[in-house]
Write a structure and sequence with these properties.
Among the domains are: 135 residues, Penicillin-binding protein 2a (Domain 2) (Alpha-Beta Complex), CATH 3.90.1310; 263 residues, Beta-lactamase, CATH 3.40.710. 36% of the residues lie in helices and 20% in strands. Strand 17 and strand 18 form a beta hairpin. Helix 3 runs antiparallel to helix 4, helix 11 packs across helix 16 and helix 12 crosses helix 14. 42% of the residues are buried.
């Protein structure tokens, strides 16, 4: 910067020449220099004040925005820094075929403690026991006053319980956010859904893993973020499932049964519309499995899939269908039925004496063991085994349940002639009711094998052909006769043209042999018989009822009436319009009931 001299020589000489005082020039220049300096300092100060004002304005805006963000955010507990990877807690919903929720997630909290932060451990333990009576006071005090740094108290708590814990006021009690699995319909479809539990757990989250049912079978899919939260749509219909369970529970009680199961399936797709097993449980509070005794005594036991039973005379229809497919018989072929039938050292008896011979149709209608054994003799054990293998009776079903692999049929080690005969009328081979439902659906849909499924609308492809359409049609005609004039007459629901077959099998002892007064009573059928849409299999464990002056255990008196009520109730729900038949005379009601299988 160029400074102006205080005593410029030219001005000094000029002032002296004029007789002026040169010192006045110096004082004037000092004054001007001071004013210029003051102006510069003032401008510099004003600039600094402006910059500071802008800085404080930016700081206040930043702080205000952050405070607004925090005020709108969900409150969270302080997080401990950890190197472990984040736990994925999100799990997709499960719905029925109409989109109604069967399983979903609920935001809740877990309760844990950090003992070093606690103010009064003993008082806190006392208060916690009042809120959670199942906690052990002495154990809590020991954990809170020991050397532990972290203690889980409750994995899931309600909002009310959370508020009560807040009111304790101890800083050592902390909450961790959770998603828990919720089944809003309680025990409805419990064995299908199965249940879930917490897997890997952290302070801030916990993963949900399936323990049984479709929750286990689809565990990976339900937890996969790539699905974008899309629900798993099952084939069951919640309304029909509810009706089926209600009727089955009533029938189980009425028939004094130990347990019961029922399956309603579409014959073309194999989609299971409803499936129940009783007794059941609430998946929101899944009980512990049995550690001893009979597994079927546990409410967790799924009789439809895990229950492997001899299913009695319901198997006779397969022997007849195969014999017709091989061209060995037709519905009117006469078969010897003189009882007992001797096979080596064995005797085969009928429930009643049906005379020297019956037509093939009447063998099914009257449920003749001897007649069926004669037909199986024509088939032979090798061809019978091959046929039942194609029907799916030697492997577990492929239904999408975690328990499905455990339902493996029990087949004879040596498929002898006598084994083939007893298998023909439902003894010597044990399978699940779901196996039976799939096999009856194979007959009902025209002869193509059905694979049961619990997933809705996944583009089902027709299975391999097992019998011809003509054989399947004639077989359905025989089953219709069983209901219209045979052992299943109590299932003859007006307007629905039910076709089916009964089966009563002595219950096997775990130690070998059979009980004399305990049976598995089963009805398997399809409706409408003229154009089958659905298959129903219903089975009662150890059922008995007092009727016509004596105790009855056969399926015609126990399982069939319950199955008839199921069809009567669910037929309209399925959208099936009853067919009108001939009008009955006023005041006259035909009551049909036949003893037998």
């Amino acid at each position: 910067m160029i400074r102006t001299p205080l005593r410029p020589l030219a001005r000094i000489l000029d002032a002296r020449a004029k007789g002026e005082n040169p010192d006045a020039i110096e004082r004037e220049n000092i004054r001007l220099r001071g004013e210029a300096t003051r102006d510069r300092e003032r401008l510099r100060a004003e600039g600094r004040l402006l910059m500071m004002g802008l800085f404080f304005l930016a700081a206040f805006v930043t702080v205000g925005a952050r405070m607004g963000t925090l005020a709108a955010a969900q409150p969270e507990e302080p997080q401990l820094s950890e190197a472990a990877p984040a736990i994925i807690a999100q799990r997709a919903d499960i719905t029925d075929r109409e989109g109604r929720v069967l399983a979903t997630n609920l935001v809740t909290h877990a309760l844990y403690a950090q003992p070093p932060m606690m103010v009064d451990p003993e008082r806190t333990a006392e208060k916690l026991v009042k809120i959670f009576p199942d906690l052990d006071h002495d154990r809590l005090v020991k954990d809170f006053t020991g050397t532990r740094k972290f203690v889980w108290i409750k994995k899931k708590i309600s909002p009310e319980q959370m508020q009560d814990v807040h009111d304790i006021g101890d800083p050592g009690l902390l909450f961790g956010p959770r998603e828990m699995r919720l089944y809003p319909n309680g025990s409805l479809a419990a064995h299908i859904l199965g249940g879930a539990r917490f897997g890997n757990e952290g302070v801030n989250s916990a993963e949900i893993v399936g323990t049984a049912g479709v929750e286990k079978a689809f565990d990976g899919w339900l937890r996969d973020p790539a699905n974008g939260g899309a629900p798993l749509k099952l084939s069951i219909d919640l309304t029909i499932q509810s009706a089926l369970e209600e009727i089955l529970a009533g029938g189980m009680k009425l028939m004094n049964a130990k347990g019961a199961t029922a399956i309603l399936m579409e014959v073309q797709t194999g989609e299971i519309v409803a499936m129940a097993s009783l007794p059941d449980f609430d998946p929101n509070d899944r009980p512990a499995p049995l550690t001893k005794g009979d597994a079927s005594d546990s409410p967790l036991f799924n009789r439809a899939v895990q229950g492997v039973y001899e299913l009695g005379s319901t198997f006779k229809i397969f022997a007849v269908a195969q014999a017709m497919e091989l061209g060995l018989v037709n519905p009117s072929t006469m078969v010897a039925t003189a009882s007992p039938m001797r096979v080596g050292k064995f005797k085969i008896h009928d429930f009643h004496n049906y005379g020297p011979q019956l037509s093939v149709t009447d063998v099914i209608v009257e449920s003749s063991n001897v007649g069926t054994a004669r037909i199986v003799q024509m088939i032979g054990p090798e061809r019978q085994r091959e046929f039942l293998t194609r029907m799916g009776f030697v492997e577990p079903t492929q239904v999408e349940l975690g328990e499905a692999p455990t339902g493996r049929p029990i087949v004879p080690a040596k498929w002898s002639d006598i084994s083939a005969m007893t298998i023909g009328y439902g003894h010597g081979l044990s399978a699940s009711p779901l196996h039976l439902a799939a096999a009856y659906a194979t007959i009902a849909n025209g002869g193509r094998r059905v694979t049961p499924t619990l997933v809705h609308d996944i583009g089902h492809q027709p299975g391999e052909r097992v019998v011809s359409e003509d054989v399947a049609r004639r077989t359905m005609g025989m089953m219709r006769a069983v209901v219209s004039r045979g052992t299943a007459s109590f299932a003859d629901v007006k307007g629905y043209q039910v076709a089916g077959k009964t089966g009563t099998a002595d219950k096997a002892k775990p130690t070998g042999g059979y009980y004399k007064d305990k049976v598995i009573a089963t009805f398997a059928g399809a409706f409408p018989a003229t154009d089958p849409k659905y298959v129903l299999v219903l089975s009662l464990d150890e059922a008995s009822t007092y009727a016509a002056g004596e105790t009855r255990r056969t399926a015609g008196w126990t399982a069939v009436p319950v199955a008839g009520e199921v069809i009567r109730r669910v037929g309209p729900l399925l959208g099936l319009r009853p067919e009108e038949g001939p009008t009955e005379l006023a005041g006259i009601q035909l009551v049909k009931a036949k003893l037998g299988h």
